[in-house]
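Ticket #4471: structure export looks truncated?
Reporter: QA, pipeline team
Priority: medium

Steps to reproduce: submit the single chain below to the structure queue and open the exported record.
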Amino acid sequence: MYLRRYLRRIFQSVPYKPPPLPIKLLPTADLVEEEHTPHYKPQHFYPVRLYEILNNRYQIVTKIGWGTSSTVWLARDLHQWRWLQPQYVAIKVNASNYASQESAEKELRITEHITKANPQHPGRNFVAILLDSFRVASPGGTHICMVFDALCEPLWMLKRRFEGNIIPLDVLKPVSKLILEGLRYLHTECHVIHTDLKSDNILLSLRNPSILNSVAQDEMNNPSPRKQLDGRDIYLSRNFWGLSPDELGRSVITDFGLAIHGDGPPNSHPIQPEGYRAPEVCLGGDWSYSADIWNLGVLLWDLFYGHGPFDIPPDSCGSGSTDEAHLGQIISLLGPPPLDLLSRGEETYRYFDAEDFISRTLRWRPEDRTTAEDLLSHPWLTRLGAYFPMFDDDTWCIVR
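Actual output as written to the record:
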């Protein structure tokens, strides 16, 4: 054991040193990234600094994302032998406030479950897998850190690569197939409902991870702008890497912070983003795995048409609730809801008085929506069309 530790100290990767370059400081009055989140309190976020080493292993090299209760960082794994190519990971550092801490513990447990459920299942290749986890302390509390493979752009960014801000069918079909493979794994092997499928939470992998070394070097040569306030730095994310289409890999479902186990007691609490909400959720009824299928149908519509089927115009006005307007949009597309569905929802009284691929996902009744398993054999997907370079031969071998 002592010899192993000694050899690791001698031969493991050497940490980078901060470059002696000028840094662009942002005005302290301007809100930066996570400061825009509702009820933001700086003490809830761990004050990550570039080039610090977390857990005696991971050296932070740049910030790549943020959310309402976490920040995400690209880090170099110092346990890689120094004569090998640098190894990079993404670290999600969760906030420490009570609600987020409870959510972070839940997210960690469910992500561990997803990682271990069935490593041999092909769909596991299309969900984010936990590589490591640890905790760090700050004056604001304890922060759970989760380590993943570093991914690149989300689907909303992929849309911008195409004319009209829409993903063409010869690209959307294979993307859809891989998302469904991931959903099949979550539903049938893990018995997990994601509940928050949107273009932010589906990211593309890198076909050549060595690109990450270029990202790290770019940070050293051109340090990210940052805001310094009360002894902490708040950095701008470096999340646009200028990749070409042939450098993009498979789609990966991420972010299980709102995921739940599907085989427990019935669920009826509100879930899903506005515009993506399944009708049984709006009506206060029980929901299950098929809520993800509805969610997927709305997402695919948005990716192909450039807008969701139930988007409410931003300049629209009215006294009704968001769910009321959303249900009105559903009715305009699908027609009146079945009476038996209305009888199931506790919130029904608030809103009512008494053959293509997406149509199989956008059904009023949860049980009428096709499962991920069945959708994978739908003719729309089996006729995938032209080969697209973002999906390599290994990916096709996995999902054929």
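Status: closed, not a bug. The export was complete when the record was re-opened. Leaving a note from the reviewer for reference: The chain has twelve helices and twelve strands.
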